[in-house]
Amino acid sequence: KGKAKGPKGKKITLKIAKNSIRITLDGGRRLDLSKMGIATFPKCILKLADVDELDLSRNMLKKIPSSIEKFQKLRWLDLHSNQLEELPEAIGTLQNLFYLNICNNKLTTKNLPEGLNLLKNLHILNLGLNCLDSIPTSLGALKELTEIGLFDNALTTIPNSVKKLPKLKKLNAERNPFPDSTKQEEHADSIKRIETLHLVQEKDLCSSCLKMCTDERDKLNKLMNMTPSSSKKPSFPLLLTPNSTAKDNQEKWRLR
């Protein structure tokens, strides 16, 4: 008799899966199998492949099969807080995917599939809390990305192709072993975006121009002296907080 290979996990039947379908606020169909103790991807859910959202987070999954490609309508895929060591190339066929959360797994840079670069409609990608030592420059192909999570990995740099994505608004790369020079370089990059700066002495300005500049400077000083509100924290509502070590970190990076 062969030895048991890890926990068997809960067996998901088609009936259980059907009873786990919820209707989203926008009328979509969401298959929620989170926190179900699943150790193996349930083949029965392939019969429900027309859902818009699939949540398999907070389970014990080590592998996602290539058959995930059958979920062609999928816009929202949550796999956070499992034990995934790799993703299938077939994930790149999910061309409607808007949101992908693979945070808090065991993914390495080597096992990130090239298919990720094909998700042209992806807006939100969370790769935080994994074992990534670098980010492929090819992720710069995801031109629709607005938010990306890279926190709690082993990154020493982020490629410019990712940092300069045209629609990127939020990038969380906290708690990575970046060298100080990298941090300085990031700050310098934002300064370089000022295209032209003209300097003149006050004596070279006419009285009306001088008054206008002085007034503008006074306004700027008032704004700078105002105490910013510390009560407003970043809000990222869609990123579900896992029941794991990710809890404290993900509270700071929730996505909607």
Descriptive overview:
The structure is a single chain. The chain has 256 residues and is of the alpha/beta class. The protein has a domain at 33-172: Ribonuclease Inhibitor (Leucine-rich repeat, LRR (right-handed beta-alpha superhelix), Alpha-Beta Horseshoe), CATH 3.80.10. The chain contains 5 helices and 8 strands. The chain has helices spanning 14-19, 160-163, 180-191, 207-225, 247-250, and strands at 21-23, 29-32, 53-55, 76-78, 99-101, 124-126, 147-149, 170-172. It has an 8-stranded mixed sheet with strand order 1-2-3-4-5-6-7-8. The chain is elongated. The chain starts with 13 loop residues before the first helix and ends in a 6-residue tail after the last helix.
